[in-house]
Amino acid sequence: MIINDIGEIFAHVLDFQLNEFFLLINQNPIELKINTNLIFNMQYYNFRVTVWEPVIEPVKLSIDFTDN
Questions:
Q1: What average pLDDT does the segment 22-41 reach?
Q2: pTM, entire model
């Protein structure tokens, strides 16, 4: 989380959340497999209307890597 600590000047305040993280690594002499899943979102604080507003809606990212 980034917090406004500039005093009288308003700076953007961001909140990044990592809601789920999964990492699986399988390695043998023939191949390497990496699988990862994560769910994240980001929002900022709108000082004009005093509410948190989304920058990135919750999104799931999956990455599969194989090296042989």
A1: 96
A2: 0.65
